[in-house]
């Protein structure tokens, strides 16, 4: 009888790579990639792994976004942000390994429970305030704050995620390009009058309102009507809301940028004395010692289970078959033609996307790195993004893959969440059932989904 060759041991002293992680299951899909839960084999620590196919990124002109997001995340580390820990690549994909948030995003929970209480929103608002103050102090604008990009950890604390369209900005300067998701854009972004970090506070106000009321504050029959409402329609506050809540919200949802509530490291403790937030202790807040009023179910993966088998059955290049695929020595004529067309682009990406391991970095920079990617370094076959004020920006056409014109813009539900089971590699570590067993929504919830 022939003997079965054993697998060679994994070299954990080498640069971090795909083999260092065990795939558990897919949990999400974003504008430029997919997300799965992984276990780092040597430390037995769980993370979320976002992977983006290089060829698809080139087709969607998203390479610039990927490099932009990575540079920004490398410069950040905060208790209320989804932090980057590793970045690497292989022949097919670019990988980000980040904090795992098992609680799901606020869109998911709002669609199942309806409007949130003021007590619940109060803590979320304060925690997101601390995250925004942190990134703004480092001259970064997020530009895409919405319930989908606010993730909850398993204890119920919220974290700001997805810096795909974030930008660095020089002090005292303005940006002019539209970027983000239209229902959450500040008026000054929509009318291209120039904006800075204050635009993020407007977006936070829109999120608060939407989650408190169960519907978006600006609802038009068409995209044009909605955009017009954002810039001029009166904002109606329910009489059932408390005066402190309305006062705080109206400070954020102020169209006049000079009058809008803008929170900085210099005034954040004073803002926390506002009647809406006054019950929160500052020290307990920053140390994550305040107890959330809602804690997600620890026996479930809190994401949509509708497309459980999508990647395994429909994905052209499923991640769990990567090893076999990369070991292929022959290519079809179609694959060869595609490689010849974009081969130079792929080579440049391979050279520029170096390995990142936060554990080997001495310190996190206090100031955000320059996030421009030089056109001579990384380009795509598609038309290049527009530029303004010397900063990399993105045109409306470029943003269309991140925000839709008529359907998703009005619906506000831009990213569908996917779940699948994926684990074939035996491992003695016992993992929570929710990480390796598919979750099935039995449809028992009777609450109305949030309306956007």
TrEMBL record:
Protein kinase domain location: 21-277
Alphabetical list of CDD domains matching this protein: STKc_Yank1 (cd05578)
Region ranges (Disordered): 319-340, 372-452
Signal peptide: none
Bias (Polar residues): 443-452
Molecular-function GO terms, alphabetical: ATP binding; G protein-coupled receptor binding; G protein-coupled receptor kinase activity
Segments of skewed composition (Basic and acidic residues): 396-418
Domain of life: Eukaryota
Amino-acid positions noted as binding ATP in the UniProt annotation, renumbered to this chain: 50
Listed GO biological process terms: G protein-coupled receptor signaling pathway; regulation of signal transduction
PROSITE patterns: PROTEIN_KINASE_ATP, PROTEIN_KINASE_DOM, PROTEIN_KINASE_ST
Entry keywords, A to Z: ATP-binding, Kinase, Nucleotide-binding, Serine/threonine-protein kinase, Transferase
Protein family according to the UniProt entry: Belongs to the protein kinase superfamily.
Name of the protein in question: AGC/YANK protein kinase
Native source species: Capsaspora owczarzaki (strain ATCC 30864)
């Amino acid at each position: 009888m022939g003997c079965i060759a054993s697998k060679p041991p994994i070299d954990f002293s080498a640069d971090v790579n795909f083999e260092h992680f065990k795939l558990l299951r897919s949990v999400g899909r974003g504008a430029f990639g997919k997300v799965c839960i992984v276990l780092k084999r040597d430390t037995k620590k769980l993370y979320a792994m976002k992977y983006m196919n290089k060829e698809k990124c080139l087709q969607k002109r998203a390479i610039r976004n990927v490099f932009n997001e990575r540079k920004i995340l490398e410069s950040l580390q905060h208790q209320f942000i989804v932090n980057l820990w590793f970045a690497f690549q292989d022949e097919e994909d670019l990988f980000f390994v980040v904090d795992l948030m098992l609680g799901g995003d606020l869109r998911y929970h709002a669609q199942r429970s309806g409007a949130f209480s003021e007590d619940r929103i109060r803590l979320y608002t304060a925690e997101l305030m601390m995250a925004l103050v942190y990134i703004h102090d480092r001259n970064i604008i997020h530009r895409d704050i919405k319930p989908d990009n606010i993730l909850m950890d398993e204890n119920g604390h919220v974290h700001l995620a997805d810096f795909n369209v974030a930008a660095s900005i020089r002090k005292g300067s303005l940006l002019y390009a539209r970027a983000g998701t239209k229902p959450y854009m500040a008026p000054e972004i929509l009318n291209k009058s120039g904006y800075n970090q204050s635009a993020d506070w407007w977006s936070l106000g829109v999120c608060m309102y939407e989650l408190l009321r169960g519907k978006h504050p600006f609802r038009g029959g068409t995209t044009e009507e909605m955009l017009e409402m954002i810039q001029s329609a009166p904002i109606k506050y329910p009489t059932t809301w408390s005066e402190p809540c309305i006062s705080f919200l109206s400070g954020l949802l102020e169209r006049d940028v000079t009058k809008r509530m803008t929170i900085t490291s210099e005034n954040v403790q004073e803002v926390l004395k506002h009647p809406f937030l006054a019950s929160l202790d500052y020290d307990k807040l920053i140390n994550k010692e305040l107890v959330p009023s809602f804690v997600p179910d620890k026996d479930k993966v809190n994401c949509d289970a509708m497309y459980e088998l999508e990647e395994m059955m429909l994905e052209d290049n499923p991640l769990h078959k990567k090893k076999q695929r990369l070991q292929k020595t022959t290519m079809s004529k179609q694959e060869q033609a595609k490689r010849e067309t974009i081969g130079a682009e792929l080579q440049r990406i391979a050279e520029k996307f170096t390995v990142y391991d936060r554990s080997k970095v001495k310190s996190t920079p206090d100031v955000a790195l320059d996030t421009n990617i030089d056109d001579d370094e990384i380009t795509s076959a598609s038309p290049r993004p527009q530029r303004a004020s010397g900063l990399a920006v993105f045109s409306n056409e470029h943003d269309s893959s991140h925000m839709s014109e008529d359907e998703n813009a009005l619906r506000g539900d831009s990213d569908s969440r996917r779940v699948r089971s994926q684990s074939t590699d035996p491992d003695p570590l016992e993992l929570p059932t929710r990480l390796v067993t598919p979750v099935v929504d039995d449809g028992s919830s009777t609450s109305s989904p949030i309306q956007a």
